[in-house]
């Protein structure tokens, strides 16, 4: 099984972490709409890696679905799961990122963005953050895919599962296995990584319907 370590906006992370009860499904957006997302398959882990100066993995979930949407439609579907309280906030943040990456954007334009739906999300407290893979270095703009059955990929996966398994709401492993997973030594005891079948929740369903509507309107 593979996992994707994605560079993550700190404001997006802190906003979603603060939501109570914990939010189960989020839109990990990409400022541009040029490419799809094929780094992992649905059901494989998606890790939230905070950028410098923090440089830590601060949570994860499971990749469920990718779509390209106008930013207004992304807000209508995902709302606060976009990582902001208002449409104005998310739009301003996206414009700032697009400008940083050299994307010319009319401030009034309803530009398109990449929407990576991640569900069964867990956001860690600062004292739970996981050290990034040793080879996650250099000019990695968006992220990197890892084999979770060996090396650094296995390490981050096991550490993240151990932290998540202590949460009563997390359903990534069966209830009867949670204490065993959380307390097992790092050398083993966690078993082999398993792909989780992602839920096609309401947001994903709405996203697919909205894509068809947007394409038909072109």
> On the 0-100 scale, what is the average pLDDT?
82
Number of structural domains: 1
CATH topology, anyone? Archaeosine Trna-guanine Transglycosylase, Chain: A, domain 4
Helix count equals 6
Commentary on this structure:
The protein is α+β, with helices and mostly antiparallel strands. It has a single domain (2-217), classed as Archaeosine Trna-guanine Transglycosylase, Chain: A, domain 4 (Roll), CATH 2.30.130. Helix content is 30%, strand content 24%. The chain has six helices and seven strands. The protein has helices at 10-17, 71-78, 87-100, 151-164, 178-183, 202-217; strands spanning 2-8, 25-30, 45-50, 56-70, 112-123, 130-131, 143-147. Strands 1, 2, 3, 4, 5, 6 and 7 form a seven-stranded mixed beta sheet that branches. Helix 2 runs antiparallel to helix 6. It is globular, with a radius of gyration of 17 Å. The termini are far apart. 37% of the residues are buried. Mean pLDDT is 82; it is low at 173-192 and 207-218.
């Amino acid at each position: 099984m593979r996992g994707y370590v994605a560079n993550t906006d700190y404001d997006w992370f802190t906003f979603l972490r603060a939501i109570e009860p914990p939010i189960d499904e989020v839109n990990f957006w990409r400022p541009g709409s040029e490419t799809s997302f094929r780094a992992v398959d649905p059901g494989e882990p998606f890790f939230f890696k905070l950028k410098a100066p923090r440089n830590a993995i601060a949570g994860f979930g499971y990749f469920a679905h990718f779509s390209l949407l106008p930013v207004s439609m992304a807000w209508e579907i995902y709302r606060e799961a976009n990582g902001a309280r208002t449409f104005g906030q998310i739009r301003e943040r996206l414009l700032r990122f697009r400008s940083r990456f050299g994307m010319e954007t009319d401030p009034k334009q309803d530009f398109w963005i990449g929407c990576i739906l991640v569900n069964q999300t867990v956001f860690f407290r600062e004292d739970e953050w996981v050290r990034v893979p040793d080879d996650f270095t250099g000019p990695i703009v968006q992220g990197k895919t890892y084999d979770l059955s060996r090396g650094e990929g296995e390490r981050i996966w096991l550490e993240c599962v151990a932290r998540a398994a202590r949460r009563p709401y997390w359903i990534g492993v069966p209830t009867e296995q949670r204490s065993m997973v959380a307390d097992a030594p790092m050398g083993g005891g966690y078993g082999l990584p398993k792909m989780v079948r992602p839920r096609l929740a309401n947001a994903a369903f709405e996203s697919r319907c909205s894509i068809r509507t947007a394409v038909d309107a072109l």
